[in-house]
Amino acid sequence: MHDTQKIFLQQINENKGIIHKVAKMYMDNPLDQEDLFQEIVMQLWKAYPSFKGTSKFSTWMYRVALNTAIVFFKKDHRKVDKTSLNEQIEIADFSDSHEKEEKLAYLYKAVQELNQIEKALIFLFLENQSHKEIAQNLGITEVNARVKLNRTKEKLQQIIKKNGYEF
Amino acid sequence: MNFDQLKDEWNNNNTQHQEVSEDMLKIKEARTPIDKIRKQMKQEFILQIASLILGAFVPKIFDFSMPLKSTYLIFYGIAVAFCTYYFYKFYTFYKHSYDLSIDSRKNLLWFYYEMKLNVELYKALTYIIGFIMISFCATALFLTKNDLLARILEQLSLTYIVLNAFITILIIGVLTELWARFYYGKHIKQIKVIIDSLDEE
User: Fold this and answer.
1) pTM metric for this prediction
2) CA distance B38 to chain A (A)
C-alpha cells in the first residue's frame, strides 16, 4: 500500500463517523446508506489530491461528503420506506442511553422529509458549524444561511410533532 | 424541541463503525448524475461509431450507381466531419474531472451547466445527422429518376414535398427531445430543483 493511501485511510477512519452520519441523514434505507457511504469514500479518495492541508481534514471532508450526498440519487428500484416513525422505532427501553438513541433515530427518520439543502443545513448545524461556516460550505450568504437554518428548524419541529413525537 | 440538547446528543453519539479498508477505494464506478450521463453517452458513442463504420459500406450493400455513390460519399464525409468534432467535445466532457471540495453552490452550478451543455451538443449532433440523411435521401430521389418513388414524387406538388420535409424534420426534433429528456433530462431537472432551493431567499 502506498504511503498516501495509508495516510488517507488513517484520516478517513479517524473521521468516518462524519460519513456515516451524512449517509444516514440522506438515505433512510440501509442499502442506500451503504451505497452512499461507499460513494463518499470513493469521491474523497478521488478528491484527495486537492486537499492541501491548509484546513483541517474534517473541514475538507464535510464539503466533499455533503456535495456527494446532495447530488447522489438512490437506485430507482428501491422503494422508499413510508412507514410512520412509531412503526419504525419500537420504544422498548426507557433508559437514558436508549432514550438518546431513540431520539436520534426519530431525528434521522424526520430529516428524510427535508430536501437536500435543508438536510445539509441541519447536518452542519448539528456538527457545531457557525452560520458563517455553513454559508461558506454551501456557497450562500451568511444572512441567507441564518434564515434558511431557522426555517429548516421550524420545519423539522413540525415534522416531528406531526409524527407524534416531541422532544 | 430543544436543539441545543439534540446537538449535544448528536455529538456524543459515538457508534462504532466498520473500518474503511483499502478495497473500498477500488470499488465500482461513481454514481453522481454526471457520471451516469457520461456512462450513457459512452454506450451511445459505441453505437454511433459502429453506425459510422457500417455507413461506409452502404454504397456496396445497396449497390449504388456511380453518381449516387459519389453523392453519398460527399454526404458521408460531411457527417463524419461533424461527428469527429462532436465526439471530440464529448471526449473532453468525459475526461473532465470535477472537484467536489468547492462550495455546494459552485459544485451544483458546474454539474448543471456541464450536463446541459453536453445534452444540447448531443441534440445538435442528432439534428445535423438527421438533416444530412434527409438531404441525401432527397438528392438520391432526384438522381434515380427512373425509380417508382421518383415518379410518384413528380406527381406531387412542391408544397406537399416541402411540407413533408418540414414534418419529417419536426418528427426528428420531437424524437430527439423526448430521447434526451428520457435519458438525461431527469438528472438535469433534479439538480435544477436543488439549485433553486439553494437560491430561495
Assistant:
1) 0.80
2) 15
